[in-house]
């Protein structure tokens, strides 16, 4: 705590936003809307181009019974100030709570019903707009949003809640001539299992959470052939353990040097379960990221990110057990290697690859390869029309490490030349360049709650050193 400074201090902002337009109605956008509605006299326009994902986004629109949340239900309340909200919703429907890992379909239903309740109570102040935003412009103290089928819409502020961008093609699979039946570029944009013989060999490019989802869906749809999951290191997510006590938070900031941090984590893990060590860093992860310079962040991404991801983003025990069973049956294998090139055969995809640490090149022939490298944030490589137009207009720019949108510490987007927008903000995973840990519900719900208060000048900001 800084000498003589109050623990909290009120910081005046621009005049209150009476009308807020939110672009994207996934978890981030929906929960910002619901938090804003708790403030009086605020009108909210929630804009989503995909009606089927209104309130859920991509993450929670899955209907697969095998797709479980990666966080226990007890920590999945949509509201930062109401930790029991989701558990109460589950209990009211006889679904239990405690340490359960419920399906993502159940969580999507929870979000849709919560949004519907808010619409019923605040229909005069909440408008759901099923449309696509073409452009966002500022002028005369307002923001104007041009829509494909309507508009323009005017607001005091606009907030980009566009979620994750689709995966980028690995270099060896970037050839646009590869047939769609042999190479699936985005597993969430198509029914990737359609037309696939049940005994066909499949390559899953990537070994993280997206790969796990795709593998489970293939298995649930009756696929019996060999699945090879490949990434540079071949790492796969670890499992949650049941019955662990709640982790003791880290009270002092760990050493900012990455090597020292790894040594600290290893020492702590030798004394207690490593999951508790990783979880104990949660309250200070954003602080650690904020205090790191560009070079240190780049080193983390280059050397430690894959290991952080598989330890931090873990699998529900039931999901991990299904993956273990597939491996034991010989139907699933994980490989560490690099795909060097790919070419289409008559009805197969032929790939040359090199195993990690090896010099010889092997060949893999599959009926289909599925890009499971996970969501990306590089604006330069994005095919999203709105992102492309805003980049061309200089309204937005990538953050230094191209993890997402460049923003200031209060969420205002930064455009070409370093110009900070007064009326255009961003939330959710595309702000990971500034916050890093902002992809899971527990982090996003805090972010949207704080932003809602700032937009109506009803916020208290933590003092320096807290």
Automatic annotation (TrEMBL):
Organism: Sphingopyxis indica
Lineage: Bacteria, Pseudomonadati, Pseudomonadota, Alphaproteobacteria, Sphingomonadales
Domain FAD-dependent urate hydroxylase HpyO/Asp monooxygenase CreE-like FAD/NAD(P)-binding intervals: 21-164
Cited Pfam families: NAD_binding_9
PANTHER family assigned to the protein according to its UniProt record, in alphabetical order: BLR0577 PROTEIN
Name this protein carries in UniProt: Uncharacterized NAD(P)/FAD-binding protein YdhS
Gene3D superfamilies, sorted: FAD/NAD(P)-binding domain
UniProt xrefs under InterPro entries: FAD/NAD-bd_sf, HpyO/CreE_NAD-binding, L-asp_N-monooxygenase_NS-form
Recorded coiled-coil stretches: none
């Amino acid at each position: 705590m800084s000498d003589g400074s109050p623990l909290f201090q009120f910081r005046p902002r621009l005049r209150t936003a009476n009308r807020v337009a939110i672009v994207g109605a996934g978890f981030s956008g929906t929960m910002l809307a619901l938090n804003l509605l708790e403030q009086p006299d605020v009108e909210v326009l929630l804009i989503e181009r995909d009606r089927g994902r209104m309130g859920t986004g991509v993450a929670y629109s899955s209907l697969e019974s095998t797709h479980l949340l990666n966080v226990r239900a007890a920590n999945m309340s949509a509201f930062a100030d109401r930790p029991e909200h989701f558990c109460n919703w589950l209990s009211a429907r006889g679904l239990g709570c405690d340490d359960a890992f419920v399906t993502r379909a159940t969580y999507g239903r929870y979000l849709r019903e919560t949004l519907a309740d808010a619409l019923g109570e605040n229909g005069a102040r909440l408008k759901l707009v099923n449309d696509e935003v073409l452009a966002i412009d500022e002028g005369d103290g307002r923001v104007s949003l041009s829509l494909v089928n309507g508009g323009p819409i005017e607001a005091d502020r606009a907030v980009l809640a566009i979620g994750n961008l689709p995966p980028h093609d690995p270099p060896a699979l970037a050839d646009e001539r590869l047939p769609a039946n042999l190479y699936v570029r985005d597993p969430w944009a198509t029914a990737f299992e359609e037309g696939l013989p049940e005994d066909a060999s499949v390559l899953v490019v990537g070994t993280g959470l997206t790969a796990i989802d795709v593998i489970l869906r293939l298995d649930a749809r009756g696929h019996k052939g060999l699945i090879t999951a490949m990434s540079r290191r071949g790492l796969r997510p670890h499992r949650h353990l049941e019955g662990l006590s709640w982790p003791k938070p880290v009270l002092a900031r760990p050493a900012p040097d990455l090597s020292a941090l790894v040594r600290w984590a290893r020492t702590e893990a030798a004394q207690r379960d490593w999951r508790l060590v990783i979880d104990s860093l949660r309250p200070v992860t954003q602080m650690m990221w904020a205090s790191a310079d560009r070079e240190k962040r780049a080193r983390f991404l280059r050397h430690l990110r894959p290991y952080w991801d598989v330890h931090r983003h873990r699998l529900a025990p039931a999901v991990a057990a299904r993956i273990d069973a597939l491996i034991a049956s010989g139907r699933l294998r994980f490989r560490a290697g690099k795909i060097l090139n790919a070419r289409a055969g008559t009805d197969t995809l032929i790939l040359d690859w090199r195993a990690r640490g090896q010099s010889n090149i092997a060949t893999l022939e599959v009926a289909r390869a599925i890009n499971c490298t996970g969501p990306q944030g590089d604006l330069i490589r994005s095919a999203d029309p709105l992102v492309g137009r805003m980049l061309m207009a200089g309204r937005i720019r990538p953050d230094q490490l191209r993890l997402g949108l460049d923003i200031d510490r209060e969420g205002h987007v930064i455009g070409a030349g370093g110009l900070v927008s007064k009326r255009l903000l961003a939330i959710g995973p595309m702000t990971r360049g500034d916050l890093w840990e902002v992809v899971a519900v527990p982090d996003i719900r805090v972010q949207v709650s704080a932003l809602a208060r700032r937009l109506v000048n009803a916020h208290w900001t933590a003092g320096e050193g807290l």
